[in-house]
């Protein structure tokens, strides 16, 4: 496993300054080093190459984040147009997969992740389980309604063909399970 970046080892105040300047996107590595030197009492606490590696990783993460936002916009618009479609059924599975991958990566990190990350993922998993339960209940209710309608229609057809009321009630209760 790679060792921890010297930027990550910095005091929180210095690391936040680095992150802010990188996110801004207008500053060169030399500008960031000069700013760090100003904050740190005249000397930059990290090398230019370490800062460059850190900036590259940060920019790559920001690029992936922007891509994920674009994909999410497409999925959300698809979900809005077809709330019961394939996307609606696929999303909980995708979220579950992402949550498990994230949990795995937290366990691989040296710091083991923080409690807030784990709590967030636990809440996401709980919400996914609730969604699964609600979806299952909704499907069950729909199936029961369809069965009742089918049973009612079958009994109507049978009565029209000469079936007695007692026989129709027996079919409805015993065979179709509808009261």
What does this structure look like?
- InterPro entries: Phage_Mu_Gp27.
- It is a single chain.
- With 179 residues, the protein is mainly alpha-helical.
- It has helices at residues 12-24, 29-39, 48-81, 86-108, 115-160, 165-175.
- The longest helix has 46 residues, at 115-160.
Total helical segments: 6
Radius of gyration: 30 Å
N-to-C span? 65 Å
Helix content: over 70%
Runs with pLDDT <50, length 5+?
none
- Overall shape: it is rod-shaped
How much of the sequence lies in strands comes to under 5%
Order of helices and strands: HHHHHH
Q: What structural class do you assign from the helix and strand content?
A: mainly alpha
Indicate the mean pLDDT: 80
Biggest sheet features: none
Secondary structure tally: strands = 0
What's the quaternary structure here? single chain
Break the fold down into its secondary structure elements and pairings:
Blueprint lengths: L11 H13 L4 H11 L8 H34 L4 H23 L6 H46 L4 H11 L4
Helix pairs in contact: 1-2, 4-5, 5-6
What is the compact description of this entry?
The chain has 179 residues and is an all-alpha fold.
Main features:
Phage_Mu_Gp27, Terminase, 179 residues, 6 helices, rod-shaped, mainly alpha
């Amino acid at each position: 496993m790679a060792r921890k970046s010297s930027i990550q080892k910095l005091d929180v105040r210095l690391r936040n300054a680095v992150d802010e300047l990188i996110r801004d996107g207008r500053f060169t590595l030399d500008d960031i080093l000069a700013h760090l030197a100003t904050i740190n009492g005249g000397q930059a606490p990290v090398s230019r190459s370490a800062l460059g590696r850190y900036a590259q990783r940060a920019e790559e993460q920001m690029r992936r984040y922007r891509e994920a936002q674009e994909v999410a916009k497409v999925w959300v618009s698809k979900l809005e147009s077809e709330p019961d479609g394939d996307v609606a059924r696929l999303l909980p599975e995708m979220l579950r997969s992402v949550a498990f991958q994230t949990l795995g990566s937290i366990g691989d990190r040296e710091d083991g992740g923080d409690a807030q990350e784990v709590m967030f993922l636990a809440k996401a998993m709980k919400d996914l389980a609730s969604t699964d339960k609600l979806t299952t209940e909704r499907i069950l209710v729909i199936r029961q309604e369809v069965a009742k309608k089918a049973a009612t229609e079958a009994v109507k057809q049978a009565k029209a063909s000469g079936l007695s009321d007692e026989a129709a009630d027996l079919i409805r209760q015993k065979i179709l399970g509808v009261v």
